[in-house]
Amino acid sequence: MPTVSRRDLLLPAEPGQRALARELYALAAEQPIISPHGHVDPALLAEDRPFPDPARLLIVPDHYLTRMLLSQGVPPADLGVPTIDGSPAETDGRIIWRRFAAHWHLFRGTPSRLWLEQTFRTVFGVDTALSPATADAIYDELAARLAEPEFRPRALFERFGIEVLATTESPLDDLAQHAKLAADGWGGPGGRVVTTFRPDDVVDMEFDDWSANVDRLAEVSGEDTGTYAGYLAALRQRRAAFVAAGATSSDHGHPTARTLALSHAEAAALYDRGRRGLADGADAEAFRAHMLLEFARMSLDDGLVMQLHPGAVRNHNRGLYARHGRDVGGDVPQATEYVHGLAPLLDAYGNDPRLRVVLYTLDEDTFTRELAPLAGGYAALYLGAPWWFLDSPESLRRFRETVTETAGFYNTAGFVDDTRAFCSIPVRHDVARRIDAGFLARLVAEHRLPADEAAETIVDLAYRLPKRVFKFGARA
Q1: Domains defined for the chain, CATH in brackets
Q2: Which spans in 312-424 are helix H?
Q3: pLDDT tens track for 187-198
Q4: Nearest-CA neighbor of 203 among 136, 293, 266?
């Protein structure tokens, strides 16, 4: 069987388009990485300690990997995922690695395999195919690399060509790690590592310990959250602290895209019911929906870009949640409606160029029907990249095919890696750049776009658009 050069990974198979795509990809590949949304722990870079063993770096925290093995009967605890119910979890990194390698065949054809193989190859220089027979050798080779100074987090940050990395924190976070980064010349406004304001745990009444979290919000902000007015003041105070720490955006992970315009009295009544433990599911949804409008109003004042990540049914696997807690692979997508859901917010602020809302979806059916027409019709709205269950080569291609005709390229916001896996960041951006190169090459080959404009566009998609939309550098 003929082989394809790795330089042509994900590029079109047709020779003419492949040649065009190579040229376009070369332009994108030399651009710095802008990573405006992700979940890397800021302590990783603030403390700059050596990474742990290969299993704890690459397998244990990656729920893309552990959920697949769970679907085949391998409990996450056997892969080292910590438990919250007191049950034991494997702690031997080599055993975890061997167990994972024994199930490597489960990832055939998945983006997880693509990312991990490219991480082995491009980050660590390990080109041996993973299998049960090679597991120990690869583990040892990776462990040896991790012991070298060149593989400390800050050194890798430099080698990856990352210009800006945004982490994601709760308003309850004291931002101490970001303060350390700022003191070291890595953080603060305009810094290389900045924070993002994620208020879900103090906005969503269905979040674990919501009322206690609101009490904690009062402590960290110095505002009285006993009233709705005090609650809003506390959120404004924390947003100001995040802006001072370098934040340029907020992030909202609501179950739906619903927005709702309530009077102050109506919102205060909802808030009071929640604080007294009397709110039901409908109240919680209404409060979340209203708070998106409140946050839009705050964004007009402090300039934070709003990111909306709706559509995930959190903790659908209740057994997994009971044993391991949140964010370990128990979430699933659901159908999400945007046209009517976003109407109150867009009626109020959709034509105001001071507001930027970057909208994501887990519901691919909405690309053509809802999202592209919305982004193509409102000044405030941009489309975020395919995210989470859709951050795969095929979905990235379909995204460009389905939204470009209506929204164009410039109502999109560039790629986001949305990852906790630090070492996969350059790999994920590389995949997106290769897909965009292939799409643009096809437009050139079909005489739908001049080659010089395609060359300008690929640099915009890879670098200039995310930098501008997320206000990195000069606030714009």
Answers
A1: 52-149 (1.10.2020.10), 153-470 (3.20.20.140)
A2: 318-324, 343-349, 366, 372-375, 393-407
A3: 999 999 999 999
A4: 293
